[in-house]
Structures are given as structure tokens and as C-alpha cells.
Amino acid sequence: MDGPNNGIVLYHYSFSPYARRVLWYLALRGIDYAECKQPPTMPRPDLKAIGVNYRRIPILAIGRDIYSDSRIILRKLEELFPDEALGATTPEGKAIQKFLEIWTVEAGIFVRASQLIPTSMPLLNDPKFISDREEYSGRSWNKDQIAANRPEAVAAIRNGFKFLETTLLADGRNWVLKTDKPTLADIEAIWTFDWLNGLKGGLPRELISEKSYPKVFAWIARFNDALKTAKGQAPKPVTLDGGAAAQRILKASFAEKNLSFDPADPLGLQQGAEVEVFPIDSGSRHHDRGRLVGLTDDEVVLSTQVKATEVRLHFPRTGFRIKAVSAGGSFKL
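RESULT FIELD:
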């Protein structure tokens, strides 16, 4: 890709579980990139500076193409940097990889994992953090509510450990797809369980431990060893402040030369229509608006202006809503 650090700028904060998926991928691939660290709570003026209202982390820019949501970020890294990509190559492998993505991201495994955040965490005594997460999730982060949700969350996560122990890892393989090194399928499967394993007080060790699920915990340890080795060999990311990151992005070219548009899409939207896009599961109050320039069964792309410079905002279709906007600024229902 053109530009320094492959034209990549990753916006993230250090303890974001979703950002770790992308950080792991970049390290395992040895892809050079720049990063712009963000606060864990709103506001994030660095993202406003590149035309992004979307509030979730991570955000990844490749040139003037900006990708929101870790699912589309990983897919685009696979497509735009195809040499020695980590994705599955067989139909069966691709199916397993996709189902693991759906299981952890869309089917609720991580949501349940987030309900195991211990009430002793210092952040849960920070009113700003609590208010931010309640606005983000649309649910209470009251300590009593968190405690009340814990038994159901433990049952769901224990079932997840059991699934991995007795199916994909049951035959003693090192990696999910029986490869000689971790692949994207491992990232899709492991990120929630690795995060919980490293979260002090997150897992009830009397129920979920190396003793009860030895294959899963051995896999987690192997993955972290492989990741440590990869990080030692990968280029160290350049850290940019918000101003430098925005300047780099706005002066770059587009990473994607041709965008697809499906005229038969069920929404019946026309190319060039003014629309708003926003997630419907969390962070749904933060809408991005622009001209609809790309639309497929798994992606929507908006064109918007930042200081008279065009940038493109890319979102997945799953979990996001696209609404046409009238000339007066209100939704067309």
C-alpha cells in the first residue's frame, strides 16, 4: 500500500477486547502500521477529525478508506494484504472461521463474557466510565445488576469452554484448522476466552480452570506464546497524535479503487442517496451520514467530506441499519 506504515492508522485503546483482535492479526502477519491511542470513554475528537461519529473501538484507516467494526477490518486486511494471509483457504475452513466469528461477535458469547467483569474493578467506581458504558450498551452497569447477571453469564461461558474442549480441540490439535501456526479462525475463536482468562476475578476458577478444560487452556497458552514471538519479530507501530493521524489520512489516496453497488439490494436505495448508518446492538445513538457510494450484501460505504476532502466510511451490513435521509434532515420511514 502507498504511504508510510502501509497507509494504515489504527485507532484503539489498550484494553479494548475488540481492538486486540486486530492488534493480534497485525502482529501475526508482521504488517507495519501506525496507531493513534484513544481514551476508553467518549468524547474522541481524534475520530471527529476524520469524519467519524461511530463511537466503538477499533477504527482502522487505510488511506482515506476508514473501516468501522473489527469484523470488516479483519476482512479488509485479508483482501488488501493477501500475501500470506491468515484466513482459511478451503470451503470447510472458511465455514468454521465464519461460524466462529458469528458465535463470538454476533451470537452473544462476548456479551455474556462482558457480564463477568468483576464488580471490584476500579473502573466500576468511576462515574464517568459507568455513564459512558450505560450510554453505549443501553443497559445498567449498576454493581447490583452486574452481580445479578453473573450466574447466567457463567453458565453461558462455561458452555463455551465445553464446546471448544469437546469439539474443535478434542482431538488434541494445536490450532483450530489443524494448521502449523495460528490462523484467523484461532483469533475468531480465542479472543473472548483469552480476555476472560486474563481478567482478574473474571472466571470462577472453581468451575472453569486448566483442570476442567485442559485443552482450551493449553491452546490459550500456545496462542500467547506464538503471539509473543510474532510481536518480537514484527515492526513496532509508530504512534501518532490525533492531528498527525488526521493529516496523514486526509492527504492519502484511497485504498480501494473500485466499490461495488448492488442495484437490486432489498432496501431499494439509489447510489448517491443521502443516508445515515448506525449500529443497532450498541452505540446506536451515534450516526454517520453521507452519500451512499457502495452497497453489497455484507458492506455499506458512505462518502463524506472533511475539510473539503472526501473520505469513505465502511461498515458491515450485519448489526447495522441504513436509513435514507430527507432533504430536511429527518429520516424517511
